[in-house]
Amino acid sequence: MISPLDLARVLEEEGYLIDEEAATTLFLALALEKPCLIEGPAGVGKTQLALALARAEKRKLIRLQCYEGLDLSKALYDWNYAKQLLRLQLAKTENWDKIKVDLFSKEFLLSRPLLESILSPEPVLLLIDELDKSDEEFESFLLELLAEFQVTIPELGTISAKTKPVVILTSNNTRDFSDALRRRCIHIYLTYPSLEREITILRSQAPELSERLTQDVCGFVARVRKLPLQKLPSVSETLDFARALKALQKVELNYGELMGTLSVLLKYPKDIAKLEERLRKWETEAQHRF
Amino acid sequence: MDGWKFIGLVHALRQVSVSISSQDILDVQTCLARFPDLAEKQIIKSIFIHRPQDTEIFEAVWGILLEYPESSLQEYSEDGTINSVLEEAQDSSGTGGQGLGHGTGGVSLTVKGNILEASQVSNLIPFARLEELTSSGVEFEDVVKTILSEMDYYTWINAYDLADQRGELSEETWYEHQDSRAFLVREIRQRLLTVQVGNENSWEPLVRQHWLLKSLSTLTDREKELVKSSIRKWARKLAMRPGSRWKNSRRGTIDISRIVQQSVQWGGLIFHLNYRQRIPRASELVVLCDVSNSMAAFVEFLIYLVTCLRARFRKIRVFFFIDSVWDVSEFVCDDDLSGVKQEIKSWGDKVSSGFSDYGAVFRELAENRLREVSTRATLVILGDGKNNYRPPQTEYLAQISEKVRNVFWLNPLEVQEWNERDNMMKEYRNYCSKVYRCRSASDLQRIVQDVF
Predict the structure, then answer these.
(1) Do residue A179 and residue B19 have CB atoms under 8 angstroms apart?
(2) Which of A87, A197, A273, B279 could bond to A193 as cystine, CB 3.0-4.6 Å?
(3) Which residues of chain A are at the B interface, by a Cβ-Cβ cutoff of 8 Å?
(4) Do A99 and A54 sit in the same domain of this protein?
(5) Does B314 touch chain A (CB under 8 A)?
């Protein structure tokens, strides 16, 4: 890829539409071989961007899903205790000095996603998803990996990447990261797509929808996103909502006929109640207009 | 890009707390050289900005250094000829229509009527007047207000508010109008900053406008969101910090059942020690907030903080007061805070006057509510201490202070204002465990670390 436009084009071929600014930033991250930290509200397509990039770059995807309590034994490596025990039982008569070195060799090492991405001989894309859910200790551990593409295992020493992986980190912004981590990454902030972009997304992801329904649904969702709701509808929820209307044989969106379908779009009862109230206003407005 | 300008930009960004490392500079230079076809601003922004909240300050600095060169300011200065041309071209068919501009620039928003185009906005701002007000030493926020008022901004937005209330505006028009409002105010602030930075020949005015340091009562909507998002993050961090009761055994107590569960994986031969989840450290938090007009902006943030921290306490009670007390604890568990905001606004039904009376409030609290409060409770008072020359009745605060474990007072006024004649802070502070200035997000951050 020689330009951001080129990157945007290959991503589009993989079904992901990216705006120019984000494409430029991602392009620079790839050019500088730096990890890319993608932040933004849930459902704006952070993970999808990483998946599309892996396909576009023909890299093997290795995904680490973060959660509270995630530690090195789940993210980086662990020793195969059962195998070590077996080895010990079989080697009662052997030389102990030899065995104790042997016990902590690569044969007894269980690679977890981070180590797997470092050891992989083929190009990989490492997706560290929802990093904000992990603990701060884990974030500190990642610094070595992000800066040097290497990890240190006390018993084995430092292991460097065979092929530099593309690293994408995503965050829903529930907690802040340290300056040290941010400094090592190129930062992209994704927001909800514009009306035009969302129409294009729906056209490509759900070609079975009529043009009228696609435009109506996107216009409606754009209005809903301006309301003060606890959780705004994501792109995938827009898609689900449009498909739900299609399943109900709707060819266009009428405010009066949406009751009962809103739970596809919104996930909190309070939000649904707010929208239902607003729908009545919009319906009256629409009637006045015609 | 001109090397001096680049150095100037890096210096300015570092001055306004954007962290830029030598590696970042190297990366930018590499990219500028490798990709001459890409926009310089985009390259620099992509590599220098590591936090979403720094974007705005980057735009401000970029604007001052590279987009509003001094010559463009002079273009509009003094005679106001450009403004008069604008006035002739104005369309008076909009929602407003009442009144004409009376400011120096002579541009009235009310006769503009329709939604403002972004391109028009910069031409509407009276730069000469901005310079004049800044040179005469008027405070930043006051300059903004004066300029807005001279542009008939308040009449203009009022006309729209009324039209909206009457149902004359479609929702789209209303949203467009809101965007125009925000854009206009942002543009005025940006131009004012440019003038101030030029006058003071330093980046200090920009530092003062950093959202962490600004008064909570003058934050824009976007800045309010930033503060709230920071509060959420502080609260989350706090939830993971060991409370005082666990400090002797930092990792909590051993959880036998989890150890057994895990050791089964290795046939019971190897096991890791597991510890129980920590429990909230404080038994009760009592919050007492003055919700008179001058305090409303601060109350909203404190309550938001308390909402985020509710899991950390076994019990939270929140009282609002002006000259009497009412309980609003039920609204604090609600995440969207609409109930609390309504309560802040609706004090008119609950008090006899709009003037704070701390003495009466402490008396009511001590006589009627204190018996229900635990001796292990922490009391947080948010108030400016202005008692409107009423008796301070400090004996009741002393009584409260004896009953609870800690009393923390958060005051949004500057420390020197605590000694003004009608301010009782000098007397009340003797009965508090600690008194804090709570004026900006950075004050709030310090309080979060100290108090909770």
Answers:
(1) yes
(2) A197
(3) 3-4, 21, 24-25, 28-29, 31-32, 34, 37, 39, 81-82, 85, 135-136, 173-176, 179, 182-183, 185-187, 189, 223, 226, 228, 230, 270, 281-282, 285, 289
(4) no
(5) no
| Domain that residue B79 falls in | 71-210
Using alpha carbons only, what angle is made at residue B240 by residues B234 and B246, rounded to the nearest 5 degrees? Answer: 130
Do B421 and B295 share a domain, yes or no?
yes
Half-sphere exposure of A180 (CA within 13 A, CB side): 12
pLDDT score of A159: 87
B38 touches chain A (CB under 8 A): yes
User: Smallest CA–CA separation between A37 and chain B, in Å?
Assistant: 9
- With CB atoms and an 8 Å threshold, state whether A270 touches B336: yes
Whether residue B38 and residue A4 make contact (CB cut-off 8 A), yes or no, is yes
- Under an 8 A CB cutoff, do A281 and B171 touch? yes
CA geometry: angle at B267 spanning B261 and B270, to 5°? 80
3-class DSSP state of B63: helix
Maximum alpha-carbon separation in chain B: 90
B47: nearest CA in chain A? Answer: A186
Give the confidence band of B75 by pLDDT, cuts at 50, 70, 90.
very low
pLDDT in tens, A123-174: 999 999 999 888 888 888 888 888 888 888 888 888 888 889 999 999 987 7
Residues of B in contact with A189 (CB under 8 A): 52, 55
Residue B427 within any structural domain of the chain: yes
Average pLDDT of the residues of chain B: 77
Both tokens of B257, joined, read 């059942």
Whether B212 has its CB under 8 Å from any CB of chain A: the answer is no
Q: Which of B32, B52, B67 is the last residue of a domain?
A: B67
Nearest CA among B214, B206, B207 for reference residue B64: B206
Q: How confident is the model at residue B125 (pLDDT cuts 50, 70, 90)?
A: confident
Q: Are residues A201 and A272 in the same domain?
A: yes
Interface test with A, best of B19, B51, B232 (most A CBs within 10 A): B51
* Nearest CA-CA distance, residue B36 and chain A, Å: 11
* Same-domain pairing of B382 and B406: yes
* Nearest Cβ partner for A173 among B38, B39, B229: B229
Q: Does residue B81 or residue A15 have the better pLDDT?
A: A15
Length in residues, chain B: 452
Minimal C-alpha gap between A8 and chain B (Å): 14
Q: Which domain holds residue A19?
A: 4-75+116-189
Residue B113 within a domain: yes
